[in-house]
Prior knowledge:
The two termini are 23 Å apart. This protein has 2 domains: 1-139, HUPs (Rossmann fold, 3-Layer(aba) Sandwich), CATH 3.40.50; 140-289, Rossmann fold. The protein contains 11 helices and 12 strands. It has 289 residues and is of the alpha/beta class. It has helices at residues 13-29, 41-45, 55-76, 91-98, 122-130, 142-145, 164-176, 200-217, 222-225, 239-246, 270-278; strands at residues 5-8, 33-37, 82-86, 104-108, 135-138, 151-155, 179-186, 230-236, 252-257, 260-262, 265-267, 283-287. A hairpin with a 2-residue loop joins strand 10 (260-262) and strand 11.
Amino acid sequence: MDQPVIVGVDGSDPSLRALAWAADEAALHGLPLSVVHSPAWGAYEGYGPSLGISRSARRIHADNVVGTAVERVNRRSTEVKAYGELVYEDPATVLTRMSREASMVVLGSRGAGGLAGLLLGSVGLEVAARAHSPVVVVRGEDKSLHRGYRRIVVGVDEAGEPSPVVEFAFHEAELHGADLDMVHAWRCPAREVPDHPDHLTDIERHRALAEQILTEALPPTAGSSGVVNVRRRAVEGHARRVLLDAASTADLLVVGVRRRKSHAGMQLGPVDYAVLHHAPCPVAVVPHA
C-alpha cells in the first residue's frame, strides 16, 4: 500500500484548514488520507471537552470529530480514499510513530493567548521535532492555502549538495506546476564589525560561496525535467529573516531539520522554530536523514 498522507485533527478551525490542505495534497499525489484524532488532544493543548464529562461522552465526541472530518474529505474530493483512526495515546507520540509509514504528516497551526495565529501548539512542535517523515504545518492566509502564488520556497543550508529537503521541494513544485525558489542566506563577518573597512573582496568571496552552494544543491534530475522554473537566490542576512521575507508570496516554505538532542529531548533549530511560528504560508519541515 502507498504511504498515506496523515493529518491530525482535533475539530478546531486550524485543524480543519489542515484537513482541506491534506486532502488536496493526497488527491494530487494519488495517496490515501489517514485522518487521526486522539481524545487526549484537547488536554494536551489546554482546551477541549471538560474533564467532568463522562468517558462515554468523550468517546462520542471523539468519534464525531473523526467521522465529520472524513465526511468533509469525501465531500471535497471523490479521488481520495480517506479513513479515520481514533487513537488513545497523546497525539504527538502516536503521530511521531505513524510518521515512519507516512509520506507526510499534516497539522494545523494553533494560536494561543493574545498571539493567536502566531504560536504553534505543543503537538505541532513535538511532531516537527521528532517525525521520520516530512511534517507540514498549515498556516497563512487564503491565497497561500489555496496555492494561489504558484511558488514554493526552499531554504538551502550549508550542505551544498542535493538533499531530501530540496528533492521534496522540487517534487512539490513539479506536481503543483509551481516555480521553485532556492534561497540561501549568507553573512559576511566583516559587515558586522563596527566601523569596519569596506572589505569588498571578502564580501564577494562569501557571495560566490553562497551561489556555489545553491548550484550544488539542485537535484541532478532537475535540469532534465524542463517542467519546473528554478530560481536561485543568494541573499545576505540572517536566515530566519531571509526565509520569512521570501515566504511572503509563497504557497509553501520548505526547510530542513537536523535534530539536536538535549536534556529536554529532541529540539528544533532556531530557524525551524522561527518559521514554524511566524511564516505567512504553510511550512514543510523535512528531515535531512
